[in-house]
């Protein structure tokens, strides 16, 4: 996978049913997130969270999670990066790719 795209296995139910626990998400580190995108947010404290971006006004991110349904706000100084999710798949998908590459 090119350096532009990163993968992350989702370990929480915060975005269920949009994104299921143990699904792998692919996100684009070179594209800017837009309102209504599902996003990967890297926080300055080292944590990473997955949410839906409601809006960003330059000072704060308004976010949504689904399980439980909740709205939250993060200050821009607490966010290191916010990247759009471009795909999701089962974790087994990567195992299948690796197996095909080994067989080739």
From TrEMBL:
InterPro entries: LexA/Signal_pep-like_sf (IPR036286), Peptidase_S24_S26A/B/C (IPR015927)
Every Peptidase S24/S26A/S26B/S26C domain range: 2-71
Pfam name, any one: Peptidase_S24
Source organism superkingdom: Bacteria
The protein's name in its UniProt record: Peptidase S24/S26A/S26B/S26C domain-containing protein
Organism of derivation: Caballeronia fortuita
Lineage: Bacteria, Pseudomonadati, Pseudomonadota, Betaproteobacteria, Burkholderiales
């Amino acid at each position: 996978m090119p350096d532009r795209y990163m993968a992350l296995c989702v370990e929480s139910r915060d975005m269920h049913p949009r994104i299921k626990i143990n699904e792998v998400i692919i996100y684009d580190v070179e594209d800017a997130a837009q309102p209504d995108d599902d996003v990967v947010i890297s926080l300055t404290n080292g944590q990473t969270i997955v949410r839906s971006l409601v809006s960003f006004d330059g000072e704060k991110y308004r976010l949504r999670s689904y399980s439980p349904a909740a709205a939250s706000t993060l200050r821009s100084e607490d966010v290191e990066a916010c990247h759009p999710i471009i795909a999701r798949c089962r974790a087994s998908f990567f195992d299948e790719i690796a197996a095909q590459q080994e067989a080739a």
